[in-house]
Design a protein that fits this description.
mainly alpha
């Protein structure tokens, strides 16, 4: 998937939902970074961390699927 960065750039400029996924993915990363920098986390924060990790992975899967779909639709024979 050497073209993925280029495709990601195209999709982020042309596809509003893809852009939303990228933004949410970055928000998850930022919050996870905040949580991991804490010396102690509460039970609620541990649950939040697990939920964020799952959401981040789900978003990555969605973006990867969209990139693959784009590649398939724009493949040259």
């Amino acid at each position: 998937m050497s073209q993925s960065p280029d495709i990601q750039q195209i999709l982020s400029s042309e596809d509003p939902q893809f852009r939303e996924w990228i933004e949410e993915h970055h928000q998850c990363e930022a919050r996870l970074s905040e949580l991991s920098s804490k010396k102690e986390v509460s039970t609620d924060e541990e649950l939040e961390e697990k939920t964020l990790k799952k959401r981040k992975l789900h978003l990555k899967d969605q973006m990867t699927d969209r990139i693959r779909s784009y590649e398939m639709q724009n493949a040259t024979a």
